[in-house]
Design brief:
By secondary structure, the protein is of the alpha+beta class. It has a domain at 31-100 and 195-215 and 225-291. 66% of the residues lie in helices and 10% in strands. Strand 1 (236-243) and strand 2 (246-255) form a beta hairpin. Helix 6 runs antiparallel to helix 9 (173-190) and helix 7 runs antiparallel to helix 8 (148-167). It is globular, with a radius of gyration of 29 Å.
């Protein structure tokens, strides 16, 4: 009787474990969102996949219609645009970052800076991350030119990244040394470490060269516990609403152990779906580029007219023309 009772208890325990595993598995794989198979939802996943694959040129081409992409490439060559790099945080610092990482002796310089500012400063780094998170959340909530959807999304990002930074081994000297070596090698491999390199390489060429650097950066962040590619792999999208050529897509993805939930607006142009925010931004970039080129042409024409010699009139010809 005892054996039967023991066996029954074991069976109950095994069934309970299996049930808990099943529940945990269900939580990890919540299934697709409603409308996941629609074109707008699929378009968002495709753009995210390009970023997962470090294919920045592919992402840019999928973000705007072909004619607009060609116009943006021309604006880049003319010095009027750095899109899509302008979609990145601190985009204006990217050329300087690559220059610093590409310099001779960058590894030693950065390691000295790390030892001076971060090594052994675990508590201070955590406090700084906490304070910056609170400041960022307050700023986004009350300041800045954001839509309500953008504001909600950015607050979620700041909270997740602040919590991550407070636990990340940022002050680990061994990890820092390895990651500095990874980033400096990747930056030099881009060939974009000089001030004019982006202009000379062009938009598509620059994006292609930056792809492996982005991969190295994600590798470094992964070593600190921030797995961005996993966020993309687990991303879910679904259709919230569609009215003709306008759609609203819900996006959910995990980030640093937190679930981020947002909605993005899409617009259909030339039978393809694009992020409405991206189209608005690139339309503005191209309008500014066209205005700048017109101003440049007008200035060149005015300068040419000012330097032309005055027209000389032959006195004999003038006298002849004056006779009746």
């Amino acid at each position: 009787m005892q054996r039967r009772s023991l066996r029954s208890c074991q069976n109950i325990a095994l069934a309970s474990v299996c049930f808990m595993v099943l529940i945990a598995g269900c939580k990890r794989d919540p299934g697709p969102l409603p409308g996941a198979a629609t074109e707008p939802a699929a378009a968002v996943r495709q753009m995210a996949q390009y970023l997962h694959d470090n294919d920045l040129a592919g992402y840019a081409k999928a973000s705007v219609p072909p004619a607009q992409y060609a116009a943006l490439e021309t604006a880049w060559a003319q010095g009027h645009s750095r899109w899509p790099l302008t979609e990145l945080p601190l985009d204006e610092k990217l050329p300087t970052l690559l220059t610093v990482l590409s310099e001779k002796g960058a590894e030693q310089n950065l390691q000295r800076a790390f030892r001076a500012q971060f090594e052994g400063q675990t508590a201070a780094v955590r406090q700084a991350a906490h304070s910056l998170g609170l400041f960022g959340e307050q700023y986004i909530t009350h300041q800045g030119d954001y839509t309500s959807a953008e504001r909600a999304h950015y607050v979620q990002l700041v909270k997740a990244l602040s919590d991550w930074a407070q636990t990340a081994p940022v002050s680990d000297a061994t990890l820092a040394k390895a990651n500095i070596a990874t980033l400096t090698a990747a930056a030099r491999a881009t060939g974009l470490g000089t001030p004019d390199s982006f202009q000379q390489t062009g938009m598509t060429g620059s994006l292609q060269r930056l792809g492996p650097f982005v991969g190295a950066l994600k590798q470094v962040l992964g070593s600190y516990g921030l797995a961005l590619d996993e966020s993309v792999q687990q991303m879910r999208t679904g259709l919230t609403a569609q009215d003709g050529d306008n759609a609203l897509v819900r996006v959910q993805y995990p980030l640093a152990g937190k679930e981020v939930d947002l909605q993005v607006a899409l617009v259909r142009r030339e039978q393809h779906w694009y992020l409405a925010r991206t189209l608005a931004e690139t339309d503005a970039v191209l309008a500014a580029a066209a205005a700048a080129e017109k101003a440049r042409a007008d200035a060149a024409a005015a300068a040419a007219a000012a330097t032309d010699p005055p027209l000389e009139v032959d006195p004999d010809s003038a006298e002849t023309a004056a006779k009746p």
